[in-house]
């Protein structure tokens, strides 16, 4: 996966995140739809974290003179435990 394809995935996820946050306000009176949107929003946030982690790995490998294609997508439980 190239940096460009990762960045494009991030852009799509960010657009979906914005859409879900906007819908969240509109869905506030529809509990079931609100719950579905919140679940999807959480999934999008986790996927964004994983994409950013992969992109950072690739950049770090490249900066160290290594092959960025050796970067691997980490599982969500690993990425979500990072301190920020």
Shape: elongated
Series of secondary-structure elements, N-terminal to C-terminal: HHH
Q: Compute the separation of the termini in Å.
A: 25 Å
Round the Cα radius of gyration to an integer and report it: 16 Å
Instruction: Supply the number of helical segments.
Output: 3
Largest sheet: none
Mean pLDDT: 90
Number of distinct beta strands: 0
Strand content: under 5%
Q: pLDDT below 50 for ≥5 consecutive residues: which ranges?
A: none
Helix content: over 70%
Number of domains: 1
Class from helix and strand fractions = mainly alpha
Overall description:
With 84 residues, the protein is mostly helical. It has one domain. Helices cover 73% and strands 0% of the residues. The protein has 3 helices and no strands. It has helices at residues 3-26, 31-63, 76-79. It is elongated and about 55 Å long. The chain starts with a helix and ends in a 5-residue tail after the last helix.
Task: Give a short overview.
The chain is mostly helical. It has helices at 3-26, 31-63, 76-79.
Helix and strand topology:
Blueprint: H1 3-26, H2 31-63, H3 76-79
Helix pairs in contact: 1-2
